[in-house]
Amino acid sequence: MIRVDLPGLMTTVQDIGREGFGPLGVSASGAADPIALRIGNRLLGNPEGAAALELTLVGGSFGFETDTWIAITGSDFGAELDGEPVATGVVRQVHEGQSLRMRATQAGARCYLCVSGGIDVPLVLGSASTHVLSALGGFNGRALRKGDTLRTGPCRPPAAKRLDPTIVERLAPRRRLRVTEGLQSDWFTEGSQRAFLETSFEVTEASDRMGLRLKGCVIESVSQAEMITTGVALGAVQVPPGGQPVIVFVEQQTTGGYPVIGNVIAADLASVGQLRPRDRVEFELVSHGAARALVLEQQALLASDQLLLS
Amino acid sequence: MLQPPNESVATVFQAASDQTLLVSFGERITRETHDQVRSLLALLQQAPIPGMRNLHPAYCSVLIKFDPLITTHERVEHEVRKRIAGQEVQPAAARDNVEIPVCYGGDFGPDLAPLAESRRLSIDDLIRVHSQAIYTVYFLGFVPGFVYLGTVADTIAAPRLSSPRRRVEAGSVGIAGRQTGIYPCAVPGGWQLIGRTPLTLFQVDREPMSLLAAGDEVRFRPIARDEYDRIKAGT
Questions:
Q1: Domain annotation covers residue A167
Q2: What pLDDT does residue B6 have?
Q3: Which residues on B lie below 8 Å from A20 (Cβ)?
Q4: Cβ B17–A20 below 8 Å, yes or no?
Q5: What is the spatial distance between Cα B35 and Cα B93, in angstroms, rounded to a whole number?
Q6: Contact in structure between B174 and B161 (CB atoms under 8 Å)
Q7: Are residues A153 and A182 in the same domain?
């Protein structure tokens, strides 16, 4: 059992997500940085998509009521186990009665507290992930609160001790997000299409797991045509009437009606999960072929035996 | 009758992202395209495409999400074409007629009175127009269990609010353009709210989870506040 002594800013149970329920209006949700989740689980010998705690911007404090192993991945939240620093990307043994304290992030938006056996919550539509907006899944459909206790799955010896730093470097989050062309790219003026790719945008405070609202040059439409509501892809860069783009993210609406100027490629979605308010991002246009090569390359790194060091 | 999608109503395939393919049947909201969407959805659910991960149906289109490690746009398109071509005409799926009780106006429908005034209708007339029509559930989308119903009479069509509400309560019935819909849970929303139903639209531990399914026919029944409270207490 893990006891929540301080919940942090927004700590939720997340796994790899809940695909397949789009026809009910249910989006996948899941870890905002699935790369961090997957490598944490690999270190511990868990199934890659096992549920962990996703911490956002400001950590919390967690008491362990059992002996286990943990791995913290993603951004560095200055974790300390009974006052002793715990680095990210290493496996650490934890004893009953110990307390893990996480501070504010030092870079990036999220870290994952992965535990041997995973976090054990009832699966909703086949997944442990929390969809905060609709209060579905995870721990009672909500972010954790002080006093909550979480069960963990059966503990097992970890698969490794730490991660290969060169591979971790190659998987590191990017600020220059690669996009493929949006279905409505030609709805925007040529100047605005250029500005989208040549200027940077700031992530605003009004960003969450549903979408990241950006601030930058105003993107102007050629026409005032109304779009028919259509399925929305994860990572779509929508442009609502104000001309300020929104990156559609993991707790996305399944359908929507704003024109899309670009779409973040699958390989760069985990990077979106590490963007903080006031971070600046840029967009770089790539072909579908290039996007495919990049996701295959990323997968090869994630699945490689060389990633894990003992 | 549930019509099979066919190539004569040009089916358009577009890469929406590096892991999604949008299959569209024109750009108009009609019963025919709706039937094509439902039919394609049923085909893909009965005979899933290798590597398919999710489906997002809408008025005239289905967005297919796939695993880019397993398949490609070209292969998914090929598989969709194969399924459409090889399809036999299916019997029309039974459509349910569902009555949704709605308590109109007041706190439940803050936009009812202003909307009636702007359309030069009495409140009772607006309620009558909204509740006498039979609507089709076109699809579920946006958030879990949100139903898109169409189409409302031109006389009561209403634009979206220029600035969406930060919180719309569960059960709220709204109008946006010629669509009407029901919010299943409390979320931000920009549709004009005219009333609220005491029924629970979506519940994961219920079978079926959603009270309404695509293709259902829906009629709204005006109820008074005490009946709303009674039904609400019973659910």
A1: no
A2: 47
A3: 53-55
A4: no
A5: 10
A6: no
A7: no
B148 neighbors B141 (Cβ within 8 angstroms): yes
- Residue B163's pLDDT is 80
Q: Which helix (H) or strand (E) holds A218?
A: none
B73 to chain A, any CB pair closer than 8 A? The answer is: yes
Per-residue burial over B186-206, b = 16 or more CB atoms within 10 Å of its CB, e = otherwise:
bbebebbbbbbbbbebbebee
Same domain, A134 and A27: yes
DSSP A10-35: S-EEE-S--TT-GGGT------SSHH
Of A137, A134, A174, A142, the residue nearest A17 (C-alpha): A137
Domain boundary among A115, A136, A161: A161
One domain, residues A225 and A251: yes
Share the mean pLDDT of chain A.
96
Q: Tell me the per-residue pLDDT of B164-215, one tens digit each, with 9 for 90 and over.
A: 898 999 999 999 999 999 999 999 898 999 999 999 999 988 999 999 999 9
Domain that holds residue A250: 176-305
The minimal CB distance from B18 to the residues A21, A226, A288 is found for A288
Q: Is pLDDT above 50 for B1?
A: no
Average pLDDT in the B74-82 region?
Answer: 97
ipTM over cut 0.95: yes
Q: How much is the average pLDDT of A229-252?
A: 95
Residues A185-240 pLDDT 10s: 999 999 999 999 999 999 999 999 999 999 999 999 997 777 889 999 999 999 98
Domains parsed from chain B with CATH numbers: 11-85 (3.30.1360.40), 97-234 (2.40.100.10)
Please indicate, yes or no, whether residues A232 and A85 belong to a single structural domain of this protein: no
Give the rounded percent of residues in chain A with a pLDDT score beyond 90: 95
CB pairs under 8 A between A and B: 142
Residues A197 and A119 both lie in one domain: no
Contact assignment for A20 to B20 by CB distance below 8 Å: no
Residue A169 lies in a domain: no
Cβ distance A24 to B140 less than 8 Å, yes or no, reads yes
**For residues A151-155, average pLDDT:** 96
**Burial grade of A235 (CB within 10 A; 0-12, 13-18, 19 or more):** buried
| Cα gap A163→A44, rounded to integer Å | 11
The CATH number covering residue A235 comes to 2.40.100.10
In the sheet that holds B11-17, the strands lie side by side as: B11-17, B20-25, B61-66, B52-57
Assess contact for A99 and A64: CB atoms under 8 A: yes
Number of domains in chain A: 2
